[in-house]
Design brief:
Length: about 290
Amino acid sequence: MYVFDNDHPCVGPGAPAVSTPPSVIYRTSMASGRARVVCYTPHHDLTLAQLPESEVLGLLQALQAQYRELGAQAGVRHVLVFENKGEVVGVSNPHPHCQIYATNFVFKTIELEAAAQAAYLAEHDRPLFQDILAAEEADARRLLVRRDLALSFIPYFARYPYETFVAPRETRASLAHLSASELGDFAIVLRETLIRLDNLWQMSFPYVMVLHQAPTDQAYSGFHFHIEIHPPLRKPGLLKYLAGPEIGGGNFLNDTAPEEKAAELRAVSNVHYTQGGEGRRRAAEGGDGEGS
């Protein structure tokens, strides 16, 4: 594991001064912070799905430390961790890595998510994500991988055919709030979920993966940390294009059933297809079918 400051940061401590907007109807503010890169392994030809469980756990522990360190710095309000994987999502450096943006503002999706979860908690006296998890487990058709302290699933409201959530069972504000045992189960679930995505089509599945963590500037009631994986492919070589309804209308159209996509992923092996005959044999047989 190797963590370093990005040589070409999108945000940094030397952000330029805010210029005067051309009209009173526009507003601008300084965007400052820190940008870092986390390399998973010295091996260029591996992906997160191919790393052993111990190294996935080591990555999550490193990200815990980064959240704590960066979130404690003066002026930082939010620590965004994400991985862009694959040429189809615009990645120019194939080495397995993720990025961290620690910023003086909260990214909009997290801001809206935090507000919605706080409002739900105030109205219902229970966390929103706990009701989501209860609904998914009661239905069970969209579940992928389950452990005592973590699970993954394609949500009922998935926007992409294989959009997947990985979450701890208990409501924790961030990755840094997980206990050692919770982190262990979370690493197992995340790794197996990524393996199943790769095994579906026997390829390194591209995606945008984002850690949805509570901002660091104050306490956020009811915020439930989780990872969202957004694979852009509908089929091998076929992208889920964002067109009129999505870009122009602001609503996603998903022409697949999340129950069907979850069943596809449960049916494949939980041994990576590159790991010899066992992975290929179990994929051909349809895997263990239990998501575990």
